[in-house]
Amino acid sequence: SWLDKGCVLTSILHQDGFQGCQCENCKAMYDTGPSEWSEKLWIFQKKVAERLKREHHDKKVLIYVYTVTSTPPKSYDAFPDNVVISMQGTVPDLENIKEWREHYDVPGGFACGLHNWCNHLITRYTPASTPLFLEKQVKDFHENKVQSVRRDGPGSVFGLEGTSYYVFGRMFDDVDN
User: How far is CA 105 from the centre of its chain?
Assistant: First the structure.
């Protein structure tokens, strides 16, 4: 319904504590083996993307590489052009993107979930990311065809990190300069 209201992107994300169903039908699903939940989810997500392409040809779906789907699909190496793959859980996620670009065709591009400003990385009394780190990160995103980023962590040390927040935001306006 959101796509019918004008949204251009929807997402598929399993919960953090994913546990696969243990019924016989689910164990047999997609002939992947009873405990191959990563592959079952990848196959399901591709089928959803293909259906979305038929029903909403101009819309996209964001599929997450996260926890159980951290293992890439084994049964295919090309995604429909309406799929954007989102890397989650690492900083800056680009090593995973480079590996995916070598082995998989993802014409819709990539997205990243960033943990640049999560307070579990360091104490909140010092800056978490320098302007130079963020400049390099955004240039790497551009080089690797990252379409969007989702920031995890509030960025709450405005006095010490104000310059970093500014650089990060403005880098997307003109990556080369």
Answer: 15
Rounded Cα–Cα distance for residues 54 and 74 (Å): 24
176 exposed, middle or buried (CB, 10 Å; 0-12, 13-18, 19+)? exposed
What are the E-state strand segments in 4-141? Answer: 9-12, 60-65, 83-87, 110-114
| Packing angle, helices 131-143 and 158-171, rounded to 10 | 20
pLDDT tens-digit series, residues 70-123: 889 999 999 999 999 998 754 555 777 888 888 999 999 998 888 777 766 566
Q: Measured between alpha carbons, how far is 15 from 12 in angstroms, rounded to an integer? A: 10
How far does Cα 139 stand from its chain's mean position? 17
Distance CA 144, CA 11 (A): 21
Are the CB atoms for 145 and 177 separated by under 8 Å? no
pTM of the model: 0.82
DSSP-assigned beta bridge partners for residue 114: 151
> Would you state the torsion angle of the CA atoms of residues 43, 46, 52, 57, taken in this order, to the nearest 10 degrees?
-150
Residue 9: which of 81, 84, 83, 60 has the closest Cα? 60
Instruction: Tell which residue, 43, 92, 86, 42, has the closest CA to residue 66.
Output: 86
